[in-house]
Amino acid sequence: MSLAKRKFDTLVIGAGGGGLRAALQLAQADSSVAVVSKVFPTRSHTVAAQGGMNAALANVLPDNWHWHMYDTVKGSDYLGDQDAIEYMCRAASKTVIELEHCGVPFSRMENGGIYQRPFGGQSQNFGGEQAARTCAAADRTGHAILHSLYQQNIRAKTHFFDEFFAIDLIKDEAGFVLGALVLEIETGEPLLIEAKTTLLATGGAGQLFRTNTNATINTGDGLAMALRAGVPLQDMEFFQFHPTGIAGKGMLISEAARGEGGYLVNKDGERFMERYAPHAKDLASRDVVSRSIAIEVQEGRGCGPNGDYMHLKLDHLGSEVLDKRLPAISESIRTFLGVDPAKDLVPIYPTAHYTMGGIPTNRYGQVVVPVDTGEEEIPGLYAAGECACVSVHGANRLGGNSLLDIVVFGRAAGNDIIQFLKENHYHRPMPQEGIDQAMARLARWDQKGKGEPVDQIRQELQTTMEKYCGVFRTEEILAEGLAKVLELEQRMSMVRLQDHSKVFNTARIEAMELDNLVDIGVATVTSALARQESRGAHSRVDYPDRDDANWMKHTLYYKENRQLDYKPVRTKPLTVESFPPKERVY
Amino acid sequence: MKFRIHRYNPETDKKPWMQDVEVDIDSSEMVRDALLRIKAKDETLVFRHSCGEGVCGSDAININGVNGLGCLTRLSTLKEPIEIRPVPGMPIVRDLVVDMEQFYKQYRAVKPYLIVKDPEPEIEYQQTPEQREKLDGLYECILCGCCSTFCPSFWWNPDKFRGPAALLQAYRFLADSRDQATEERLADLDGPYKMFRCHTIMNCVNVCPKGLNPTKAINEIKKMMLKDMI
After folding, report:
1. In chain A, where are the structural domains located?
2. Residue A85's closest CA among A66, A63, A62?
């Protein structure tokens, strides 16, 4: 039977904010663009972003992009690339306004402008007073942005392949990426999509950890596809734990809760963040707040019968603020905890949230790999959003910079693709070998007989990552963790499916997702074990200090032989003076 | 707890059947948790789900005869055996998964995007908090389809009647002070079917997991049409 084929100028894999912003840019430029998504676009995880999107509009308090840049560099613990950060912070205001023109229902100020709230790690005047930089649509900003972007893509007649799962990229001998083999979930039929350019916008890999704020679909498929195509993953040891997940369950309670005036207390009712971050208190960076919570629990000041969580206090905000500014999280707290945020304290604990690392790109969204002393683009391959590592977040992302990142770099990638298409008019021939390899990846799951179930290995992977690669790490713990994930990698070959039907076979999708997750787990633990310092979210008890002399560099992990390489941080911004590393206090 | 689950695999089953399953689960958990527990043992059970917190809208199902989201429906509120079926009125693909295309088609048909004809200013369009408040109860829709697939008018005319979800979205843009396509939008909804098939049965309001009110939105559109005529 012959393989069905489709041809487009551009294939976008993933329909979250990054993918849809890029697709919109392309469709509006009359370029043919196909968006492949394993779920209907508005079910992508951008929909769950709550608090908002940073831009120095200065609608509420004085602000400018340069202060935003300073905060982002400092937040990244000086691992962020300052050229990309300058680009993002400069583009922020324009990008927010574009979204507003697309229809995003932002909350409003009395004067008719976009409402902005304070968020963690924000300051005026390079480390001064708290800023209010986060543009918000109540606490449903991601939902508002994702739906508006999908709506504008409908208008622009973008071609959608909904509920298609990307199996693997197809690459030729010259190194060009020529599209991907995808699977139509409903029919179980493979489809080859040929494209002159392919953009990976597949989001993060929060499903690596047992307790996480992420959706089930966040399995880092694009990261693993890149690894298999020989592309390294950058800075995978930096995984963000969000301070306020619902304790024991993981649902996200936005930083907006603290931005609007909520704060954390321990079992003695003490506002403990005053001890850890005297100036910014509860609005210190996420890595700082998460570690503080973990220390409070370790030192016996945790709340509840087992002393294993902290309380978020919102009851003093009043129903006006809760109903107007935080309606969705108030509802979530009532639904999942059965408590009333207007009256009760809310149990929270740090929860796996965001993949700072990812596919290395430059600020145009081009995927880049080291060659000799410099870097080279992989022709035809782009990445944007959480799966990419530009790197604007470095070792720790600031709240409100994620929605910004996806839209700014989704748009930038779209623009660069338009340029690439001007110079690359024709589809290059597809190598049969690449297609066969991708088909074999699918056929592997046809193997019958007795074997381990997917669910078993997934559970073990998630508990291993949580236990051995969590908020606090040591050489010993990580080494043990690496041995365990490598064992899981071995056991993957023993996994057999019981469901061999074609129609909507979610067991097969979950198996391929798990395969992706295991690769990313190995990358994460390997990178974490090697980095002998503490920086941002990577906190090594055995190396408690940041070590700029030896470690102010990006990690690159290759799948082949689990090889590690490093590249320097780009400390030179585009136009302004560099922010040299200094001690990071909040 | 006891469950009865709708099963149908077009490759092996001549017709749908109900499977009795017992699950060891605390009743404080949600229906989605129970389905995941069942799937861990029997991977052939197929259903859509993702965020687990009622914002992605993937897991609309029919629970004890009423549409709802699996992730927001607490087991303790349900009578056993808990009967779980796909949402009604749509072609069944497999087990609890239906083909949603007709639903999406109706959504796309109402031009669910902001239309502005004036040149774009370099700053945001101005909108007062009062104007913005008109969008509350409208923009929050997650397109789960609980409402439209529980609406008898949509069952009878899924190709002609837009259905509550699409009409809610139509009004979301009619109500937006920034939108400049009011007349076209109203003209598009005229005629005996697209909107006027709504018989205010109010099933949509009763099942919306986000507490939205499509019936009210439809009435508001009717009022706008009337005003437009006069």
Report:
1. 247-349, 449-552
2. A66
Q: Do A103 and B108 touch (CB under 8 A)?
A: no
pLDDT < 50: residue spans in chain A: none
* Cis, bond preceding B81 (omega within 30 deg of 0): yes
Residue B178 forms contact with A (CB below 8 Å): yes
CA distance A138 to A144: 9
CA-nearest residue to A104 within chain B is: B114
Q: Is B148 on the interface with A (CB under 8 A)?
A: no
Contact status of A443 with chain B (Cβ, < 8 Å): no
pLDDT (tens digit per residue) in A453-493: 999 999 999 999 999 999 999 999 999 999 999 999 999 99
DSSP H or E stretch at residue A421: helix A401-423
> Given A133, A210, A286, A540, which residue is catalytic?
A286
CB spacing of A507 vs B44 below 8 angstroms: yes
Look at the alpha carbons of B105, B111, B113, B119 in this order and tell me if their dihedral is positive or negative.
Answer: positive
Contact check, Cβ <8 Å, B58/A43: yes
Each residue's pLDDT tens digit, A383-399: 999 999 999 999 999 99
Exposed / middle / buried, residue A557 (Cβ in 10 Å: 0-12, 13-18, 19+): buried
Whether the complex's predicted ipTM surpasses the cut of 0.95: yes
User: pTM of the predicted model, to two decimals?
Assistant: 0.97
A113 and B111 within 8 Å at the Cβ level: the answer is no
Calpha distance B69→B150 (Å, rounded): 13
Q: What is the pLDDT of residues A540-574, one digit of tens each?
A: 999 999 999 999 999 999 999 999 999 999 999 99
CA distance A103 to chain B (A): 5
**Pick from A413, A399, A390, A385: which is nearest to A260 by CA?**
A399
Which of B6, B43, B75, B106 is the best residue to mutate to test the A interface, defined by the most A CB atoms within 10 Å of its own CB? B43
Per CATH, is A247-349 categorized as 3.90.700.10?
Answer: yes
Can you name the CATH fold of A449-552? Methane Monooxygenase Hydroxylase; Chain G, domain 1 (1.20.58)
**For position A1, what pLDDT does the model report?**
57
Helix or strand or coil: residue A21?
A: helix
- Which pLDDT band, with edges at 50, 70 and 90, does B187 fall under? very high
DSSP state string for A157-168: T-EEEETEEEEE
CA nearest A550: which of A527, A564, A569?
A: A569
pLDDT at A373: 83
A363 catalytically annotated: no
Nearest beta carbon to residue B58 from set A39, A251, A503: A39
Q: How many H-runs (helices) and E-runs (strands) does chain B carry?
A: 8, 7
Question: Which of A20, A37, A40, A217 is most worth mutating to test chain B (most B CB atoms within 10 A of its CB)?
Answer: A40
Q: Which token pair is A108?
A: 């409003």
